[in-house]
Amino acid sequence: MAKLIVSKFGGTSMGDAECMLRSSEVAFGRGASLVVVSATSGTTNDLIALGKASESQPWAEAEKILSKIHSRHVKIAADLHLPTESMQRLETLFEEMGSIAKGINLLKDCSVKAMDTLMSLGERMSSVLCTEAMAQVLKRHNSDKKAMWFDVREVLRTDDSFGKARPLTKEVESLSQKKLGFLRDYKTVVVTQGYIGSTEEGMTTTLGRGGSDYSAAILAEGVAADVLEIWTDVAGIATTDPRICPAAKPIDEISFKEASELATFGAKVLHPATLLPAIRKNIPVFVGSSFDADAKGTWIRKEVEDHPLIRAMAMRKKQILVTLSTPEMLHAHGFLFQIFKIFNDHKVSIDAITTSEISVSVTLDDSTLVNKKLIADLSEIADVQVEENLTLISLIGNNINHTPGLAKQIFETISDINVRMICLGASKHNFCFLVSEDQSTQAIQRLHKKFVEA
Ligand code: ASP
Ligand code: MG
Hints:
alpha/beta, Carbamate kinase, binds aspartic acid, binds magnesium ion
């Protein structure tokens, strides 16, 4: 039986007409039925700049950005010889973009709602263009399949947290089955948008930056796909960032659990939430490069053949360490509850935690520092100390918490580097610790040499 494949292509894979045609070739070659695309490279950033300029600058500034976005898409349309009907669809989107920007400019206010609708245009425009590229590729191969543009907002139901909306999985599943059930006939290649969704009331939402991977996974779950493919500009997930360690090499296969740790702890290849739906429905995920589709790429699956102690390393920069201490924690209970409640109220996610009898330290993204109210709330119950410019280094692999001597080997390798905090034990798959930002590259290079290259 044919497999139902969902393929997602990122912004660089949508860079221009040539990229769109190349990506469509890849999708055709793999037999994808649902193609999920990002905005053309740079467009989401431009749309954000457009929203901001419209809000606070003279209209001429917004016009400059509008024309930049406009000409980028018109160029691709011309290169693809876009047929009239699709050109009209694109023109309508240009008009919508102009009128939202104008509205923001008149009100001098760019609400999160307006920003989401504005940002949604990136994916809505690129998907119109990519549908045409797909149609041309199908024709080139004399395929009897048809390319079809689809508005993902018909199925990707989310809550109303604009800017970082959460998909409502159950609704997405029933809508997908209703509206995309025809995919199983394998007569159509549907091209749709990543990153965007819609509330029950029909308001457009976005899933947060880089959210197209997550969209594709949610859709794969919705249509009960057999495989999810994420196509980017690198040939899979590497043992660490090759810009830091030239000896880093692509990983052939990695388990869901290890890959989740890796995505969360800093490997930039996948949006961290992408694997959640895949894990829920046990859908294998492939990560490859649309520029080099024959390269091996990485398979992420539930079961993998080998289980190396250390498979990969990641680092997450711009971390802060917040230490909360109070003598009241001595022999008391409920202190951690109070602390976590405050983080929860502020919707701040904590990555690593360590405690002593009277203090607890947590790592956070340094962007949380802008939230003065969070620090103030924490200061009400404890003495708060903040250390900045730290990097969280993670070693990802298997059986990490049951391997004698591992910690010794790790810290011997970086014995001259001060380690601020260590987290070991909670996971079989992750050993992480904090070092100062300026020593992080060195630490990764040495550890990669010792544990991966050796
Ligand atoms: N276009 C969106 C962004 O740039 C979503 C994505 O590309 O995944 O963040
Ligand atoms: Mg991306």
